[in-house]
Amino acid sequence: MLSLCSSNIYRRVSLLLLAPAAICALSLLGVSPAMCAEKEAPKAAKPDAAAKPDATAKPDGTAKPGPKEIFDRTLAAYRKANTYHDTGKMRFALNNGQKVEKEEFQFSLDFERPNRVRLEHQSVEPKFLGGAPTAQSLFLCDGKKIYARPDGYEDQVVVIPALEKLVGEKFYGVEKFTPLLPQDLMDGPVVSMIGVNTPLGLLTSANPFEKVDFSKAKLLEPAAIGGHACDRVEFTCDDGLLTFWIDKESSLVRRVQFPAKNVPGMELEADFDGAVFDQKIAPERFTWAKKDKDLEVGQLIEPLTPEESTSKLLGQALPDFQFLTPKGEKRDSKSLVGKVTVIDVWATWCGWCIKGMPVVDKVRQKYAGNDQVQFVAMSIDKAEVDDAHIKEILKQIKVETPWARVVPEGLDQFEEAFQFPGIPAMMILDKKGQVQSVLIGTDEEMETHLPAKIKSLLAGEDLAAKEREEGESRKVKHHQKIVDASEAFKKEAAKVKTP
After folding, report:
1. Residues 25 and 81 in one domain
2. Which of 392, 430, 413 is CA-nearest to residue 316?
3. For 86-123, b where at least 16 C-beta lie within 10 A, e where not — what string?
4. To 10 degrees, what angle do helices 67-80 and 194-204 make?
5. CATH, residue 107
6. Are residues 105 and 228 in the same domain?
7. Is residue 401 located within the same domain as residue 292?
8. CA distances (Å), 168 to each of 187, 202, 205, 265, in order?
9. Alpha-carbon span 107 to 91, nearest angstrom
10. Same-domain status, 205 and 135
11. Alpha carbon separation from 387 to 45, 235, 247, 319, 358 (Å, rounded)
12. Closest to 419 measured CA to CA, from 316, 488, 337
């Protein structure tokens, strides 16, 4: 069973991390319940210098429209529109206490009533948080069929019949779709494509503001984006402040600023550059372009989990890093060479780590008198977690495994070198310091599997070669499963076409 805790070091800003902020926005569109954690709002972007704040009342003395009136006007504009187009950017900024790192990702939406849509976006995984190189995901409905080519699913393309009319409540949540497409393209396609969700929800949801308490909304001073004067409406979520910038003239949503407490120091916002109503959209935007490597399926097959994947560390020398002993002595990772070494990577905040460490400690006790084997519980806690707290946690769970901690200033280097998708993570080194085994997550049979691996290494066996071979076999079988699913899909499709 794979169970992972994600840390700030290993965290990738994917839908799992962005979901709280996204769902907070989704809830305002009536798509799914609000689910936000605690956060102060990200700082508002600076308005254009040309923007002038409104007076407290209109020139004729009547009151300015309030948040509900602004959103009613916005909804009416989106419902009236026959087509919608935007290209936009999701912007991330992370203040790690030493510097502010920034990154942005592009997305686009084309929509034409009653049921043609094209959603395209780069993977939302900032490199400064360990994200992989970005790739495109595409969701398209040509009016007859729905196609989805999600990033990270080994060339799989889901093909299913189109809805006669795209209705937000069905489009996002109906059981027919949820099992078929990954969460980053369904359950709104935009839990990961956060910014795209707002216009699509407005275009397709029947009553997106039914459960919104506008008495808790706040009308901020107007500001401008790219020369467009905007009303700004702020909603309070448990996770912080969610702010919409709405064009005064066209009622187009120009920007959404999201709370992001789930990634400390993070600010994120979506800008809908080029948003426009009722502009003619080229027919080819809704035409599916099949690639030679596409494998069409009726239901996605999940990719291999981190536990099932093969680590690139296998057979390699342990990457360099520095750690501190309980006495505060700084040591280099090379000091671990010379024995069969079990490194259990953990943190005091990781529940799955805490649960599994007593089992590892029980195995350690079997080698208490063996000077050829050593165990290290390597903490990746941040500097604010002091040694006393680490000791207290180990005492509470009755674990006596020797512990150390990665030097706080070296956590980024550690993450860069090991690229674990989460913890707990375990590495087993041979006496030469080569990584012979890597486990991501938990192992329900740790008490049996770990001693067997140690025995193999003490006997001089190449455990890394065995694990690589097993990993490659899993990869081949998984790909064949996708190919078989695609062939079965083709046969079923042929039956439908045959009178």
Report:
1. yes
2. 430
3. bebebbbbbeeeeeeeebbbebbbbbbeebbbbbbbbb
4. 80
5. 2.50.20.10
6. yes
7. no
8. 10, 8, 4, 33
9. 11
10. yes
11. 40, 40, 53, 24, 19
12. 316
CA distance 292 to 274: 32
Angle at 142 between CA 496 and CA 285, to 5 degrees: 145
Print the domain residue range for 19.
15-53+64-297
Neighbours of 488 (CB within 10 A): 12
pLDDT 10s digit of each residue in the chain, 499 long? 334 554 333 333 333 233 334 444 444 444 333 222 222 333 444 444 443 334 345 555 556 789 999 999 999 999 999 999 999 888 888 776 667 778 888 889 999 999 999 988 876 555 555 455 556 788 899 999 989 888 778 889 988 888 777 765 444 433 333 333 333 333 332 233 333 457 887 888 777 777 778 888 899 999 999 999 999 999 877 777 789 999 999 999 999 988 776 666 778 888 998 899 999 999 999 999 999 999 999 888 888 877 778 888 999 999 999 999 999 999 999 999 999 999 999 999 888 899 999 999 999 999 998 999 999 999 999 888 899 999 999 999 999 999 999 999 998 889 888 878 788 999 999 999 999 999 988 888 999 999 999 999 999 999 999 999 999 999 999 999 999 999 999 998 888 765 4
Only one residue has tokens 């439908």, namely 496
Asked if residue 94 belongs to a domain, the reply is yes
The residue from 280, 297, 314 where one domain ends is: 297
Closest to 196 in 3D by CA, of 80, 91, 90: 90
Backbone torsions φ then ψ of 68, nearest 5 degrees: -65, -45
Domain shared by 99 and 231, yes or no: yes
The H or E element spanning position 228 is strand 228-237
pTM score, two decimals?
A: 0.70
Are 455 and 418 contained in the same domain? yes
Residue in 235, 270, 232, 273 with CA at minimum distance from that of residue 51: 232
